[in-house]
Amino acid sequence: MSGPLEFDTIIVGAGSAGCLLANRLSAQRGQRILLVEAGGEDDWFWIKIPVGYLFTIANPRTDWCFKTQPEPGLAGRSVHYARGRGLGGSSSINAMIYMRGQSYDFDQWAQLTGDARWRWNGENGQTLSIYKALENYFGGANDWHGETGEIRVETPRVKWKILDAWQQAAAQQGIPSIDEFNRGNNEGCAYFHVNQRRGRRWSMADAFLHPVRHRENLSVFTNTRTLQVLFEENRERRPSDQSAWANATLRARGVRLLKDGQIIEARARKEVILSAGSIGSSHILQAFGIGDPNHLAEFYVPVRQGLPGFVLILQNHLQLRTVFKIKNACTVNSLYANPLSRIGMALQYGLLRRGPMTMPPSTLGAFTKSDPSQPSANLEWHVQPLSLPKFGEPLHEFDAITPSVCNLRPSSRGQVLLQHSDPLQAPSIYCNYLSTPDDLDIAVKGIEATRAIMKAEALAAYAPEELLPGPAKVSQQDLEQAARELGTTIFHPVGTCAMGRVNNEGESENPFTVLDTSFRLRGVAGLRVVDASAMPTITSGNTNAPVMLMAERAARDILASR
Ligand SMILES: Cc1cc2nc3c(=O)[nH]c(=O)nc-3n(C[C@H](O)[C@H](O)[C@H](O)COP(=O)(O)OP(=O)(O)OC[C@H]3O[C@@H](n4cnc5c(N)ncnc54)[C@H](O)[C@@H]3O)c2cc1C
Q: Which ligand 1 atom is the nearest neighbour of the CA of 64?
């Protein structure tokens, strides 16, 4: 590589958000775009075969393999914290569930950011219309869905007798069977829709990056680590220097990269966009002196831009994986234990692209309120026709299911902090799970509601026997302890560089606000963060589709400002 590397826009991270941004921004012919990805290509066959998450998660080839710090709320355990690494980012290893979030979430975002465009629909609300525009829905366009977008959404290609019975049992407990989620109010029980195309994973790289990779104005550097953002004094004001960039004293002018064992610099004439994910983006910023001054001082990192908003803002969902042994129905456990049926599954996949190998880990879902005072459903179940003694261990050899329940709007808050000033060293991740009385209470209610469903008549023929947490755990105290022992991440970290209300002078009344509603970072012109970090509050559901909503909104705002 010779000569200075110069682009208009540099996007750091080719994950869910980065792939969409690369697509949209490179559509403007005169603009040179660089997309930088620390991981490799996404051509490994286990990335494409849905059941391949068994081999991609916890594999350093495709996963950053972070670990949380020991969690006091999880009985001192440190949990594996998977984040995708490579083209497609986490969308190349995730569970493929397509879930938009609930209208309540986006109406709340509109209120927190003062930007009515986040509203679900109605006056100025753009959320539903953007989801429709992004979608290629198996059933064609209708009031809720679109068919001309890039994100393929399909129904699962395998059904399970035991999950059909679970759906009936949920209905007997007041959670109605519905056709689908994603209409704004998710209350009910249905098979999840998935990001797949004819039995193969449809990652955000498949949707947005591969179709445009040939564009001459788009360069993609894989196996290239961004070490830091380069800055200069902000001397000129540009038309886009509004809101969070008004009165900025610094301007991002490029990035320093580690590529092929060498440190190189790439300059950005217009902008640097961090899309390195909730862990990566806040880590890059803090390693270069943007963050809470007190924390940066601990690592002797000179403060370039003091933003106390990096304190206690990591939001994440915790899943409680209960396990019930069953009779009279088959699950993945027994299919996998038998070598003949394993061959059958492989043949079924190879010949028809059907069967258990097309399966997302969780196939059936349900949403309800933990109590009637909740503004919308705040519990989500992911029901798996399989079970393991512990997350990450081999399957049980007997038939069993895992109804995993999750509090969708936790009040516990965590942090991503430096562990070292060297950007190549992993950051410290503190989730602080179950650190509020409310979260503990909702965890107990979630386990009790799971038990009620498992006792409903529709499941009686399968003689469910509770293995985890186990029938001996009954008191509030027992169940709180059970939650601490069973709880693990469901891989939805968000909010580490949160959007909020920022006035025309670049000021915010909320110290936790890091970005304005167009993803501009306060006080540093030419720098945006567009990924899951930007969520002001975690959505009440899985997070990939909401990240795509944000990336599309960001792309529209950026293109409109040029
Ligand atoms: C195991 C798992 C299961 C999940 N299941 C679901 C699901 O079923 N449904 C759902 O909706 N959501 C799911 N999620 C969450 C969803 O995938 C994420 O919310 C979403 O992909 C986040 O997108 P992002 O753009 O913020 O980050 P990512 O997609 O994680 O992208 C960040 C990218 O930046 C790169 N990067 C990081 N640091 C650097 C650096 N210094 N230099 C260069 N590149 C860097 C990373 O390698 C990565 O490619 C799951 C996530 C995981 C990990």
A: 47
